[in-house]
## 1
Amino acid sequence: MKDILNQFAIRNEVADPEPLKIGFINESYVVRAKRPGEKSYFLQRINHHIFQNVEGLQQNIQKVTDHIRRKLQTAGETDIERKVLELVPTKDGKLYYKTPEGNYWRVYVLIENATSQEKVTPKSAELTGEAFGRFQCQLADLPFDELCESIPNFHNIEFRLQQLDEAIAANPVGRKGYCADVIAAINKRREEMCLAERLFREGKLPKHINHCDTKVNNILFDEAGRPICIVDLDTVMPGFVLSDFGDFMRTAANTGLEDDTNLDNIRVDLEIFEAYARGYLKQATFLTDLEKELLPYGCRLLSYMQTVRFFTDYLNGDTYYKIQYPEHNIVRTRAQLRLLEEQEKVAEQMKAIIHKLEKNG
Ligand code: GN1
Ligand code: MG
């Protein structure tokens, strides 16, 4: 591990890396400064099985953080090093280090005195909405095609349905027969759910840079409980704003769990919906009328997408998502499908809330 750290342009003396238990995808360590007041670091081994284009991924992060830093400087903000992540290059100026064994490592400057939260309240949902809205707004003038898709077609529902169709046709572990109801529910909504991709092809719906993992735990809060910095930038890539809005609602505005075995626990939490939407609309001033109109649809799209992704993984024999028990992926599938049905029931209420917020804030 010392050899790895030695590759990076770290100028102060640091202690040995201590492992951190966060996230399922990368392996993370904190590297503390030996002297108080000096920089500490965040060392990560990048999961290159999931992120196969590490060069593109690191370039994305560098472009996005540089762009945000310039915006903060222009706005005359202070404390900028806590408001945007900073990659530490290697001594030969690269954004990551590849070991002789083929592992990839990167280093960020550690953001001090910041914590993350696992649960949302209406108050933190509003602040989180503001933070993700501001993030998208800061990136709205960065042409979306300057970034690569760090996971190709990540939030492209047409592609996800194609993967599902391949899994249904191959039926590699013989699970299809028990799931005719799920297949029917997915098929019934195909056309509606491919609307965003169609609108993009028709030139009506733009792509922007999205975070693509808008969970509350991907925001760092300061000592006063205010969001200071958005983290976990691995999936930052071009997409529809609906992705980030919808994925937050999928994970936070659900009274049940993502894998709830009791489907009756699952309902839409409209209070969280309204709070996040209020914060988001306040900051995301670049949105077109069509994008705003489609926000409730974006919630359904992301629940549908996750239904399709969990179900595909179930049919393929659980090769992507980590599972805790054999039926986990079908339980997740049914829970996401129920959330979608609940979102359909309150679609008009969601629309009315967006209209109200547009008028009154
Ligand atoms: C994965 O591991 P986590 O929770 O950050 C997935 C998301 C899914 C989520 C479902 C790179 O995210 O897209 O929405 O699981 N991330 C990747 O819980 O596939
Ligand atoms: Mg993540």
Note: The pocket of magnesium ion (ligand 2) is lined by residues 23, 213, 232 (CB under 6 Å).
## 2
Amino acid sequence: MEHTISITSHTDRTVTDTRSLPFGKIPTEHMFIAEYSNGKWNDARITPFQNLTLSPIALCLHYGQTVFEGMKAFVMEDGRINVFRIDKHHLRFTKSLERMCMPPVPKQLFIDAIHNLVKLDSDWVPKDEDGSLYIRPFMIATEERIGVKIAEEYLFMIVCSPAFKYYTKPLNVKVETEYVRAAEGGTGMAKCGGNYGGAFYPTNKAQQEGFDQVLWTDAKTHELIEESGTMNAMFFIDGKLVTPALSGSILDGVTRDSLIIIAREKGIVVEERQLSYKELVAAFESGKQVEAFGAGTAAVVAPIATITIEGTKYTCYTEDDANMYRLREWLLEIRKGIVPDTHNWNYII
Ligand code: COI
């Protein structure tokens, strides 16, 4: 499908160093926006970052038709800018949109929008080793109607923000056995706003108990590990990389997928399968070395320091020679262009 993107640029804001600010606090200078009506995308444009005008009866404000993505751009060693795994993110966006009865965004429009936006705001991509530009494509239902229905009008937008470490220290988590994030057949595999809103209450409760995050378990047995907070949950148990298999209630994380591929290439045994918290207890109690971490675009590899299971706190291995740090390093080397990108994961701007 043909599309053109008009660009209105302005220069009155300068690059802000957001290193000391909370993640995602300051957007870059520009944003992308396109409007969907009558079955097609119209008026694709890049404008200065600005507020929206939305009817109070826009359907997204009532019935939750909102879907988003999270991706990153990096400055490579040779100075070029790379957007990591743009195809995989587009594919996941498409699947999420389908699950929420929202219209797909043509791949070329998605790529061209990100290309033009990141190019225009390229001064905002941090050059530091732990820095990147977080890119947030998202869609909302804008049709004006109080009645419950699938919207026929939408906005697709992209905003960006410089990003550094999402978590600054290893996390203390608790295995959540009362509340669930998602059930099989639900929307767990979709990156829709409601999944995050629904997680706030149990996460907030866990934080009041002194934890940083929860380790979600499945809705049926409350024993099988699913995700950790806003990340996929991954473990090294006795040197093997173990992670819950995708089940429909777990997000198909791009970082998770990349780490699995890299680990296999490096000769690490990877097991994607069901993982009961009882197996973790047995591993801890038999003295096995257990590493645990969250994997996500924003968090990259977020080490977990302790896991509390049914009131007992177990300590994970987080020393400097832990396997998870090697995995993180290998991923970084690809993104930074230090080693060849044999999978075509880097989209060069
Ligand atoms: C991401 O890692 O991109 C996420 O979506 C997690 C969070 C920032 C919502």
Note: The chain has a mean pLDDT of 95.
